[in-house]
Write a structure and sequence with these properties.
Blueprint: E1 5-7, E2 13-15, E3 19-20, H1 26-39, E4 43-45, H2 53-63, E5 71-76, H3 83-97, E6 102-107, H4 117-129, E7 133-139, H5 143-152, E8 159-163, H6 171-179, E9 183-187, H7 199-208, H8 212-222, E10 226-227, H9 234-241, H10 250-257
Helix pairs in contact: 1-2, 2-3, 3-4, 7-8
Bound molecules: nicotinamide-adenine-dinucleotide.
Residues 20-22, 45, 108, 139-140, 161, 187-193, 211, 213, 228-231, 236, 239-240, 266 line the site of nicotinamide-adenine-dinucleotide.
């Protein structure tokens, strides 16, 4: 499967589906990253917080793929907000990855109570100007947090990585992103596994001869989202990018909508402060 590219507001492109690799240690991460690249993945999403950046770098080197063909994302940890701290944290991440640039650097959480995301963003702008983060973006930003960046800084984030799955479609944030030229990237796109075992989704999957994971990832892709499902199993990794040979109809979307319950699987960005 070849995963299509989506155009960012800085002119660069991101593969629509990537491997999100939160959980495994360095060794398990290296195995999963190498397997994913072998299967056709070209985008990997990690974070300083995941403590597996070394494993991501090892998996990339093991695959012997040309660096230019890969899109590597990492994120600034919550304890590193602030201009100087962010620059230092970026150096540490790059060191651990063993790379000389990342494709995308994200502020992991806005931490509104800490109130340093604007200064942090100015450090991100410098990293991009220096060419060490080719693109810069944010994660878990609500519209009010984005609006402050628009008002007080120079560069717009290329994307906003937010919790988004059938249980929490996060429509208002997605629409705000879109209206402002920012791609929406869905984290926990399978609701951390909560989408499985649902009769309505199993019905849609059966109708299309696809799996429940494929139906949900297709639902993401049809919204124009970037998607980073997590798996370390080669069969599932292959399954999760094989979503470009069918489409959902109104009846399917209505079945998926029955899963909406507004429940987050993670923290609330408006109140989480690290
Ligand atoms: P997910 O929604 O991707 O679900 C993962 C679960 O689904 C795992 O249990 C996995 O075994 C299972 N699964 C995956 N593919 C399957 C398949 N084809 N068939 C059956 N089961 C399958 O959950 P996640 O790991 O929480 O989210 C994905 C990624 O999002 C993370 O790895 C991380 O990179 C990112 N993330 C970011 C944030 C953030 O704050 N920015 C927060 C959480 C996660």
């Amino acid at each position: 499967t070849t995963v299509p590219l989506l155009r960012q507001n800085d002119g660069r492109e991101i593969p629509q589906i990537g491997l999100g690799i939160y959980g495994p240690d360095d060794s398990g991460t290296a195995d999963a990253v190498a397997a994913a690249i072998e299967i056709g993945y070209r985008s990997i999403d990690t974070a300083a917080l995941y403590q597996n950046e070394v494993g991501v770098g090892d998996g990339i080197r093991r695959s012997q793929i040309d660096r230019a063909e890969l899109y590597v994302t990492t994120k600034l940890a919550d304890d590193s907000h602030g201009y100087d701290s962010a620059l230092r944290a970026f150096d540490t991440s790059l060191d651990k990855l063993g790379l000389d640039y990342v494709d995308l650097y994200l502020i992991h959480w806005p931490l509104p109570g800490v109130d340093k995301y604007v200064d942090t963003w100015r450090a991100f702008e410098k990293l991009q100007r220096d060419g060490r983060a080719k693109s810069i973006g944010v994660s878990n930003f609500q519209p009010a947090h984005l609006q402050r960046l628009f008002d007080e800084t120079d560069i717009r984030p290329v994307l906003n990585q937010i919790e988004l799955h059938p249980g929490l479609p996060n429509v208002a944030v997605r629409e705000f992103n879109t209206a402002n030229g920012i791609l929406t990237e869905a984290w926990s796109p399978l609701g951390r596994g909560r989408v499985f075992g649902n009769a309505a989704l199993e019905g849609v999957a059966q109708k299309h001869g696809k799996s429940v994971a494929q139906v949900v990832i297709r639902w993401q892709v049809e919204q124009g989202n970037v998607v980073i499902p997590k798996s370390i199993t080669p069969e599932r990794l292959a399954e999760n990018i094989d979503v470009y040979d069918f489409s959902l109809d109104d009846e399917d979307r209505a079945a998926i909508a029955t899963l909406e319950n507004g429940q987050r699987t993670g923290d609330d960005p408006d109140t989480y402060n690290g």
